[in-house]
Amino acid sequence: MSKKKISQMEEILDTAIKKMEALEQSIVDFRAYQSKIQELEAYYSSPQWKEDFAMDEAGKLPKNLTRGVLSEDGIYNVLERNKALLELLDGFDD
User: Fold this and answer.
1) For the whole model, what pTM was predicted?
2) Which 3 state secondary structure label does DSSP give 60?
3) In angstroms, rounded to a whole number, what is the distance separating the alpha carbons of residues 53 and 74?
4) Are 68 and 86 within one domain?
5) How far is CA 74 from CA 52, 56, 68, 70, in A?
6) Closest CA to 68 of 76, 60, 20
7) Domain span including residue 8
8) Separation CA 20–CA 8 (nearest Å)
């Protein structure tokens, strides 16, 4: 094997290690964030969300207020995506 090939393979090895470490850390961070996602889900199914949504529909919220959280599809899609990702990760735990 040539020095060039060894150097190329060393670069692949180093990059693979970095990517795997980054992915592992992202998974840890994602799992640790589940309590916040559960908080979002609780808000979405609460009377408070319904009141906030109605206020937005009535134009009673400031125009400059970021309110993507009042998008029914936005929260629903995030919760479904979260569920799918958790199922995918659970499949790797087996």
Assistant:
1) 0.81
2) coil
3) 13
4) yes
5) 15, 15, 7, 8
6) 76
7) 1-32
8) 18
- Within 1-94, residue ranges assigned H as helices are 3-32, 34-44, 47-57, 72-93
CA distance 6 to 10: 6
Per-residue confidence in pLDDT tens, the chain, 94 aa = 699 999 999 999 999 999 999 999 999 999 999 999 999 999 999 999 999 999 999 999 999 999 999 998 999 999 999 999 999 999 887 6
Q: Which residue has the tokens 């995030």?
A: 78
Q: Are 82 and 30 in contact (CB under 8 A)?
A: no
Extract the tokens encoding 24: 């592992």
Residues 24 and 52 in one domain: no
